[in-house]
């Protein structure tokens, strides 16, 4: 059943009319600036315009809350700017930020951007191989991390890194450097590594022009107003955590909440209650876990919450119904990707929500559902979600892989997402799956190739095929099929050892949760490539039997 909007004042009140009248080309033209810097727009500009004393960030670490005003954020960023400038970092240099979800992470990302470098935030869960792989792809020289996190890196194996800045040494800085590198809209500022179905993760490069998309979607979709306390639960190592955890809210001068640690239902409700969070952006797995936690919510006052959004994986209608009934909020699904750099399909607070639907195209953006030949399919028919290029948030390129970048677009200039969807008569879009083998566990993208490569490094593993297996809580879990080398026998201990081995190489989230040993893996006859599709079918057959 459709859920109507609550009466209220929203930043965008009439979707149809705005969709008809708004276009990004005019908007970009009206906001055209030759010299731009996302970091400057996100912080310094607010200090200049009189918002210096406004709280920019609440950091929750267990019982402790530390708050920073925009002026204090600027000071912190400018101190790191000084440190980076002393290291003579060049424009376009890749600066790795490998830190927990804490304020330094946000400040370091901005400092790198402010001096014209490319910030490369890395997920806090990454382990040795995942880190080496990414660093050796983009060959940056500066790494900002903690002593603890640095122990996961073998510095011999990442020869480009010549400057390691430890967070522990960055706390008592006193010198600030109020330097801004004035970039052009096309200057790169951010790179996120992301996984597909083939090959190792690739570096998706975003340019400063994306700030227009971030700002406008923060205004329309997050519906941010001056008094909002906004909490995005994602780590800045993922695109949601940077674009909607940092850039979009701060470009709109909102107060953000940063919470240390991963999911815990009680802790999360407590953060909302304590800080009077008004806008929350999270992922379906987290909402499912909140639902599973039952009446825990009853011990907390949650009525500050006025707008709740979701992204990253299919949002089940049951979760929407539950949130409406018990938390008295509608959950607004949004669809976008690392490559799109900002919202593409959205549910706006002023509009009807159809549970199960990701929403309708963001104003200024043309979306089509295409068949294999690139023709638009009728309403209700499944096809590939495609987006007419360009738009301000669209990635600028793939790091050192122009061919890969070009491969995303069809001849008609549409970006092909790899997601299968259908659209109803009202324009609402429903997700149905992927065209490829990409895995999505708890909203986090996992490339099967990266996991397979890690598996075959274990001495017992001969070959590996990795798939996503449907799971009630996580959406999908990582499931590996392997064959063993001679003289190895399948035992529970060996299987556990292999799981831990991958966890220590890549990360907790991409390690297989299940492993099945087979005598042989299904392969293509000619090239001998492992057929993940058959493994997936096998999984379904096992489930039925
Ligand atoms: C999936 C995250 C269903 C999709 C911002 C996409 C979704 C991939 C949704 C991008 C949604 C994202 N419903 N699936 N609302 N949003 N996805 O790059 O398969 O980490 O291609 O960006 O997540 O993941 P990424």
TrEMBL record:
Keyword annotations from UniProtKB, A to Z: Acetylation, ATP-binding, Ligase, Nucleotide-binding
Entries under SUPFAM superfamilies matching the protein: Acetyl-CoA synthetase-like (SSF56801)
Domain AMP-binding enzyme C-terminal: from-to ranges: 450-525
One of the record's GO molecular function terms: acetate-CoA ligase activity
Domain AMP-dependent synthetase/ligase: 53-398
GO cellular component, one term: cytosol
Domain of life: Bacteria
Organism: Halolactibacillus halophilus
Protein name: acetate--CoA ligase
Classification via InterPro entries: AMP-bd_C, AMP-bd_C_sf, AMP-binding_CS, AMP-dep_synth/lig_dom, ANL_N_sf
Broad enzyme group: ligase
Annotated gene: acsA
Record GO biological process: acetyl-CoA biosynthetic process
Lineage summary: Bacteria, Bacillati, Bacillota, Bacilli, Bacillales
Enzyme Commission no: 6.2.1.1
Pfam family, one: AMP-binding
């Amino acid at each position: 059943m459709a859920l109507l909007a609550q009466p209220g004042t929203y930043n965008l009140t009439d979707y149809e009319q705005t969709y008809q009248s708004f276009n990004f080309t005019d908007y970009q033209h009206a906001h055209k600036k030759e010299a731009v810097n996302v970091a400057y727009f996100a912080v310094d500009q607010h200090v200049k315009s009189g918002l210096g004393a406004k709280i920019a960030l609440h950091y929750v670490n267990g019982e402790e809350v530390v708050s920073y005003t925009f002026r204090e954020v600027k000071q912190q960023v400018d101190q790191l700017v000084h440190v980076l400038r002393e290291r003579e970092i060049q424009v376009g240099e890749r600066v790795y930020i490998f830190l927990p979800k804490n304020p330094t992470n946000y400040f370091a990302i901005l400092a790198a951007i402010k001096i014209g470098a490319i910030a490369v935030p890395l997920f806090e869960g990454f382990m040795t191989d995942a880190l080496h792989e990414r660093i050796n792809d983009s060959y940056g020289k500066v790494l900002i991390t903690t002593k603890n996190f640095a122990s996961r890196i073998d510095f011999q194996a990442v020869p480009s890194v010549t400057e390691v800045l430890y967070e522990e040494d960055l706390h008592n800085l006193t010198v600030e450097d109020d330097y801004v590198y004035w970039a052009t809209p096309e200057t790169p500022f951010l790179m996120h590594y992301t996984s597909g179905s083939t090959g190792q993760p690739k570096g998706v490069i975003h340019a400063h022009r994306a700030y227009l998309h971030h700002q406008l979607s923060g205004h329309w979709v997050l519906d941010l107003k001056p008094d909002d306390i906004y909490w995005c639960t994602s780590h800045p190592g993922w695109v949601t955590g940077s674009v909607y955890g940092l850039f979009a809210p701060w470009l709109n001068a909102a107060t953000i909440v940063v919470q240390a640690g991963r999911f815990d239902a009680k802790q999360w409700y407590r953060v909302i209650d304590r800080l009077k969070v008004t806008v929350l952006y999270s992922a379906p797995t987290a909402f499912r876990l909140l639902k599973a936690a039952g009446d825990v919510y009853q011990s907390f006052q949650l009525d500050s919450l006025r707008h709740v959004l979701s992204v990253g994986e299919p949002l089940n209608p049951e979760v929407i119904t539950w949130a409406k009934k018990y938390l008295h909020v509608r959950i607004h699904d949004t669809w976008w990707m690392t490559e799109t750099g900002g919202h593409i399909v959205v549910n706006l607070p002023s509009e009807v929500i159809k549970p199960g639907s990701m929403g309708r195209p963001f104003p200024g953006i043309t979306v089509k559902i295409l068949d294999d030949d690139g023709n638009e399919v009728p309403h209700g028919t499944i096809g590939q979600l495609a987006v007419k290029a360009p738009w301000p948030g669209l990635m600028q390129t793939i790091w050192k892989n122009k061919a890969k970048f070009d491969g995303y677009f069809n001849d008609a200039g549409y970006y092909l997402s790899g997601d299968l969807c259908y659209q109803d008569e009202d324009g609402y879009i429903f997700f149905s799956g992927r065209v490829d083998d990409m895995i999505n566990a708890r909203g986090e993208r996992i490339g099967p190739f990266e996991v397979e490569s890690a598996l075959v490094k274990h001495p017992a593993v001969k070959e590996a095929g990795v798939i996503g297996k449907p799971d009630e809580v996580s959406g999908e879990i990582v499931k590996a099929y392997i064959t063993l080398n001679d003289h190895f026998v399948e035992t529970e201990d060996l299987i556990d050892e292999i799981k831990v081995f991958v966890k220590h190489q890549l990360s907790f989230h991409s390690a297989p949760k299940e492993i099945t040993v087979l005598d042989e893996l299904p392969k293509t006859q000619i090239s001998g490539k492992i057929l993940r599709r058959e493994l997936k079918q096998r999984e379904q057959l096992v489930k039925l039997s």
